[in-house]
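Regression test case RT-17, inverse folding.

Input:
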C-alpha cells in the first residue's frame, strides 16, 4: 500500500469525530507514509484536538513516554483546526494507546487494519471528560461541634 486514498470506519464514532471531516484521515496517513514509511498491517491510531492539548499545558508525561516521535504529527482539518495524531505500533501498541486514552480528553481511538489496498479503522472508543479523583468532602463544621472538640478554646 503506497498512500491511502480512502478508508472505511467500522463502529460508530462520536458525532464530534474528526474522522467525519473530509480528507482529514487520508491526509494525516499520507503524511505518516511520507515521513515514516509504510504503515504496518495492524496499527492503532488516536486523534486529539490541539486546543485541548494547549488547555492541559501540553502532552502529559505518561503519554509522552508511550509515543514514538516518528509516528506523531499535528495535522489540520480543512478549516484549520489542528489535531495531534498518534500512531501506535508493535507489541505494546494496545497498552500504549490505553495509556493515551486515559490521559487525553476529547480524544478518539481506532484500530487500523491494512489488507491489500483497503484501509479499515475500527472505532475503539472516545474519551470526553477525564475522570478526575475528587477531593474528599469536608464534613460540615458547626459551632456546637467545635465547642465540643475544644476547637474554639483559644477565643
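Golden output:
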Amino acid at each position: 500500500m503506497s498512500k491511502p486514498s480512502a478508508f472505511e470506519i467500522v463502529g460508530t464514532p462520536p458525532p464530534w469525530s474528526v474522522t467525519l471531516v473530509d480528507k482529514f484521515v487520508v491526509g494525516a496517513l499520507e503524511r505518516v507514509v511520507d515521513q515514516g514509511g509504510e504503515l504496518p498491517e495492524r496499527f492503532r491510531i488516536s486523534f486529539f484536538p490541539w486546543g485541548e492539548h494547549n488547555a492541559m499545558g501540553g502532552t502529559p508525561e505518561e503519554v509522552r513516554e508511550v509515543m514514538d516521535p516518528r509516528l506523531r504529527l499535528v495535522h489540520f482539518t480543512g478549516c484549520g483546526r489542528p489535531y495531534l495524531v498518534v500512531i501506535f505500533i508493535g507489541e505494546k501498541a494496545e497498552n500504549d494507546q490505553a495509556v493515551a486514552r486515559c490521559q487525553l480528553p476529547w480524544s478518539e481511538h481506532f484500530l487500523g487494519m491494512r489488507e491489500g489496498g483497503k484501509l479499515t479503522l475500527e472505532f475503539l472508543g472516545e474519551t470526553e471528560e477525564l475522570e478526575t479523583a475528587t477531593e474528599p468532602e469536608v464534613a460540615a463544621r458547626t459551632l456546637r461541634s467545635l465547642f465540643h472538640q475544644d476547637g474554639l478554646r483559644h477565643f
